[in-house]
Structures are given as structure tokens and as C-alpha cells.
Amino acid sequence: MTRKDIPNLISVMRILLVIPVVMALLDEQFALALLLFAVAGVSDGLDGFLAKQFQWQSRLGSILDPLADKLLLMASFTSLTILGFIPWWLLLAVIARDVIIVTGGLAYHYLIGRFELMPLWSSKINTFLQIALVLLVIIQQQWFPGLEILVTAGIWLVLASVINSGSEYIIVWGLKAWRQLKQS
């Protein structure tokens, strides 16, 4: 193990952190869940900083980092849905968007050619809104039950963002595939 492995180890730690976050959420220990979620967020920033600052980026890191983020977010989202704080239809929309993106990426890779999936801005906004909703629900459950209007607004914003981001991926990558096929 070398220093270059530190960002990847931090990402693996974030993946392992998913289990205690889910356990805390399902046990309705929201303050603990929020603390663990914050640790995961800080570690996400730290591994990215270290990788960029010291040129410790790696192919493995480019897979582990977003995987850790997605696992933590989806596990938290699913846990809050099981508890009844996020509607099932929103969880299904979030999952459907991710399945469409992954399926499209795989289809592009195997039918058209290799590509580097760079997240679109709409995807970054979508991720931000999903994280904000998870945090808002946790804060509502732990300290401020009167935040129902904000949570409801967050739910609808996430749905709009899911639809927008998913549609943008379909359009952008569909056009790239069409252009690529047209050139061959």
C-alpha cells in the first residue's frame, strides 16, 4: 500500500459506512445517522481533494468514489422510504433514472464504443437535491417536525430533477450514439 491508495481506502471506508448509516436510520437514531452521513460527506471531499492535489487519481478511484456516493445515497433514500418518510413512487423514479443511465451507458459501450461518462450538471443538481432531501427528512424527524412543507417541496423538486436529468442523459447520449453511428 502506498500514499496513492489513500483516496481509494477512504472511498472503501465510505462504502463500509453505509451499513451503520442504514442501521441508525432504521432504528430511528436520526442524530447518529446525521453524524455518520456528515462523516461520509467530509470523507468524500477529503478523498477528492487528496486525489486531485497529489495526482493520486486512479481508474479504481474513478469507480469507487461515485459507487460509494451512490450506495450511501440509495441506501439512505431506501431506508427513509421504508420508514414512510419518502414516498415509494419517488424511490422508484430515482432507481428508474439510474437504471436508464446505466443501461444506456452499457448499450453505448457495447454497441457504439468506449466512452467516459462525465456527469452532466443536471445530474450534479439531482444528486445535491437528493442529498438535501435526505438531510431535511433526518433533521425533520430528529428536531423540527414542522418542516413538512419543506420536505414536500423537496420531494417534488427531486422528482422534477430526476425527470430532467434522466431526460437529458437520454438526449445527450442518444445524440452522441446517433452521430457516431452516422459516421460509421
From TrEMBL:
Membrane topology: Multi-pass membrane protein
Pathway annotation: Phospholipid metabolism; phosphatidylglycerol biosynthesis; phosphatidylglycerol from CDP-diacylglycerol: step 1/2
EC number(s) given by UniProt: 2.7.8.5
Subcellular location(s) per record: Membrane
Residues that span the membrane, as ranges: 71-89, 125-143, 149-175
GO MF terms, alphabetically ordered: CDP-diacylglycerol-glycerol-3-phosphate 3-phosphatidyltransferase activity
Primary location group: membrane
Catalytic activity annotation: a CDP-1,2-diacyl-sn-glycerol + sn-glycerol 3-phosphate = a 1,2-diacyl-sn-glycero-3-phospho-(1'-sn-glycero-3'-phosphate) + CMP + H(+)
One GO CC term on file: membrane
Keyword Disulfide bond among record annotations: no
GO biological process terms, semicolon-separated: glycerophospholipid biosynthetic process
Keywords: Lipid biosynthesis, Lipid metabolism, Membrane, Phospholipid biosynthesis, Phospholipid metabolism, Transferase, Transmembrane, Transmembrane helix
Any single Pfam family the record assigns to this protein: CDP-OH_P_transf
Keyword Membrane applies: yes
UniProt record similarity statement: Belongs to the CDP-alcohol phosphatidyltransferase class-I family.
Protein name stated in the entry: CDP-diacylglycerol--glycerol-3-phosphate 3-phosphatidyltransferase
The organism of origin for this protein: Methylophaga lonarensis MPL
Lineage: Bacteria, Pseudomonadati, Pseudomonadota, Gammaproteobacteria, Thiotrichales
